[in-house]
């Protein structure tokens, strides 16, 4: 990259809200961490598809489902030299006064789904 060039990306993180929806342009850059059985992590790119939304559960979703849905670790790579990227992102957050408890009856629903 050229000196002084602005590079915007995002270091690895999880989203703390309930749900994130992402509409990527054709440039991409979104990657999810996949933990292997040997303990290593592989970063897997999410290839952009026209009109497709990426749906990402957040930390709050993991909390209210008692870990049934895990918020994935992900990052965003800077765009390649000379390319611009435009993504639209919706962050769904709970109300600040919402109680931090599991969904009532969740254990019964989860058990039934595993039968």
Question: Any overview of this molecule?
Answer:
The chain has 115 residues and is of the alpha+beta class. The chain has a single domain, classed as Jelly Rolls (Sandwich), CATH 2.60.120.330. The protein has two helices and seven strands, in the order E-E-E-E-E-H-E-E-H. The longest helix is centred in the last third of the chain and has 8 residues, at 106-113. Residues 1-94 form the Fe2OG dioxygenase domain. This is Fe2OG dioxygenase domain-containing protein.
Q: What is the SS-derived class?
A: alpha+beta
H/E series: EEEEEHEEH
Mean of residue pLDDT values: 86
Distance between the termini: 53 Å
Pfam family, one: 2OG-FeII_Oxy
Protein name: Fe2OG dioxygenase domain-containing protein
Domain Fe2OG dioxygenase: 1-94
InterPro entries: IPNS-like_FE2OG_OXY, IPNS-like_sf, Iron_ascorbate_oxido_reductase, Oxoglu/Fe-dep_dioxygenase_dom
Entry summary:
The protein is of the alpha+beta class and 115 residues long. Helix content is 12%, strand content 29%. It has helices spanning 59-64, 106-113, and strands spanning 10-13, 19-23, 30-35, 41-45, 53-57, 74-76, 88-92.
What secondary-structure arrangement, pairings included, does this model have?
Blueprint: E1 10-13, E2 19-23, E3 30-35, E4 41-45, E5 53-57, H1 59-64, E6 74-76, E7 88-92, H2 106-113
């Amino acid at each position: 990259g050229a000196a002084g060039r602005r590079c915007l990306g995002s270091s690895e993180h999880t989203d703390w809200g309930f749900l994130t929806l992402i509409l990527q342009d054709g440039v991409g850059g979104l990657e999810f961490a996949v933990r292997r059985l040997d303990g290593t992590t592989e970063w897997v790119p999410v290839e952009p598809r026209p009109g497709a939304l990426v749906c990402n559960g957040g930390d709050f979703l993991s909390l209210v489902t008692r870990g049934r849905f895990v918020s994935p670790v992900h990052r965003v790579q800077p765009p390649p030299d000379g390319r611009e990227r435009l993504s639209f992102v919706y962050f769904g957050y709970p109300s600040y006064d919402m109680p931090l408890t599991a969904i009532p009856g969740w254990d019964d629903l989860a058990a039934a789904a595993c039968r």
